[in-house]
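Backbone Fold Data
Goal — fold tokens
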Amino acid sequence: MVERRDDRYVFAGRRGGIINVGGLKVHPEEIEAVINRHPDVRISLVRPKRNAVTGAIVIADVVLKARTAGAGAGGGELVIKNDILALCREALPRHKVPAAISIVPALDVAATGKLARRHG
């Protein structure tokens, strides 16, 4: 799917991968683009998690760059998570901000080299 923003068309996401948060539509790729702007992030994957109140909430799995991963694990990761959340809060509406961020060692990649999106 694409959206028109001013005089440009921007890739918004895949029709089947939309996350429904309380009736509001969320494109994971939009959130991933914001998260991936963080200087310590190598790649991210945004996915839904079921929620009894809103239907789903936004969750992000993040792989850190090699120079950051393992450096100051625990406390350092908490600082990075807070930085990522601050970045998301500045750039995204409230319903698109991840409810949780997990630092993971790697993400699944399909044979095509793209992120494996099993949720949608």
